[in-house]
Amino acid sequence: MAIPDAGGTAAVPPARPARTTTTGPRGAGPRKGVTGTRKVVAALFLLPALVLLGALVLYPIGYSVLRSFFDKGGDFTGLGNYETMFEDDGIRTAIKNTAIWVVFAPAVATVLGLIFAVLTERVRWGTAFKIVIFMPMAISMLAAGIIFRLVYESNPDRGVANAVWVGVHDTFAESSNFPSGHLAARSPMKEAGGGAFITREPVRAGQPVALPLTGVPPNKMPDDAKSAKPAKAEPDQVTGTAWQDFTRGKGRGEVNAPDPAELGYPGIKIEAVKDGEVVASTKASDDGTFALPKEADGALLRYPGSNFREPYDGVDWLGPSLITPAVIGSYVWMWAGFAMVLIAAGLASVPRELLEAARVDGANEWQVFRRVTVPLLAPVLAVVLVTLMINVMKIFDLVFVIPPGSSKDEANVLAVQLYNSAFGAQDNGVASAIAVLLFLLVIPVMWFNMRRMRREAKR
């Protein structure tokens, strides 16, 4: 119908565009999608991705499941490989260690990441700190394993961890300078139990005493040791000399008497003992001479066992009992920065009004953190925790590189055991069963992650 315009002329309304439908009439051509793209064309575009998915994911999973029912020689064994998996001590250790990894490593890394993220918000140099903490993520697992193999070296002169630990220990418990000292030949002393040495006869004031020892290597003697000297007689004191009664060369030096080539024992402790009680004590000077007050007259002189205590060498980080926590520590060093960055991004989106409102209501900083900050960060914390849990289930490089040969069995995890079974024992059946077990362990974590993402999408 023509509609007259303002000038009286009939105007023809514009034609409506043809409607595009997804279902067309019966007998029409191929169905099209919402965007008008034919499903055949869409399938052709998806085909390369589907082929890669099938070749790289679905086929290996299916083949591993099938291969797990055959033994090492290729004969059908049913569930025999799965029975072997739970009967073999090495594989059971790997399962136990993997469980320890899944429980502790993600939790510790997430907690540290949360602490770092919250604290760095309050300091001016927070960005620089975040960069330093995140830098280990740029290092490969293999390189990190080599680094921590050196960090955990048992010798404090080479291993950083033990160097720090020994330094702290020696601050509170002084190390001995004479750990290998023992009695010299025809010594006037005898063993007293507990590593101590004591004189055979009581000592008298005004009569210098000789307390010779031997056994300390020349290169282990204290730097401040000087040539030993005979002690001077003092009428009201018990004096004497503590020294290394050994001179290089056959037939050189006098037994039980200080020689110019022999060194004193600086700092060695001497106690005067009467009736089992210490009545006086002192330490030798650089040339080994010492003096005790008159109370020591008639007492027995004793070298306490603390003089000869073996030096503290630190902790055996790579030993069987600590190897798993040590390797987990290296993992946390690498991934705490990853957790920190993600949590810091979530923390930046937390409404500051809620935090200020909580403070106005009288909450202290700990209450604000526990009851406001952490609940608001719960989705981010879940993402970090789940990501790290999936990551540690397939941990391989660190466990393969860090433990020495003597501790490899105790540090074993499923991924390393899979490698050893497939390429070491050449048992593809057991290796496939371990791969299937790892796949089944990942499924619940993935299912939880997918549910969480769907819940977040509906909000």
TrEMBL record:
Keyword match Transmembrane helix: yes
Q: Which keywords accompany this UniProt record? A: Cell membrane, Membrane, Transmembrane, Transmembrane helix, Transport
Task: Provide the transmembrane region boundaries.
Answer: 40-61, 99-119, 131-152, 331-351, 372-393, 430-450
Q: Which residues fall in a compositionally biased region of kind Low complexity?
A: 1-25
Basic and acidic residues composition-biased segments:
221-235
List locations, semicolon-separated: Cell membrane
Which topology term describes how it sits in the membrane? Answer: Multi-pass membrane protein
Q: Name one GO cellular component term.
A: plasma membrane
Q: Which residues form a coiled coil?
A: none
Q: Name one GO biological process term.
A: transmembrane transport
Q: Does the keyword Glycoprotein apply?
A: no
> Which positions fall inside the ABC transmembrane type-1 domain?
95-449
Q: List the CDD domains hit by this protein, alphabetically.
A: TM_PBP2
Pfam (any one):
BPD_transp_1
Q: Positions of the region Disordered?
A: 1-33, 209-239
InterPro entries on file = MetI-like (IPR000515), MetI-like_sf (IPR035906), UgpAE/MalFG_permease (IPR050809)
The UniProt similarity line reads: Belongs to the binding-protein-dependent transport system permease family.
What name appears for this protein in its UniProt entry? Answer: ABC transporter permease
Instruction: Please report the organism this UniProt entry assigns to the protein.
Output: Streptomyces longispororuber
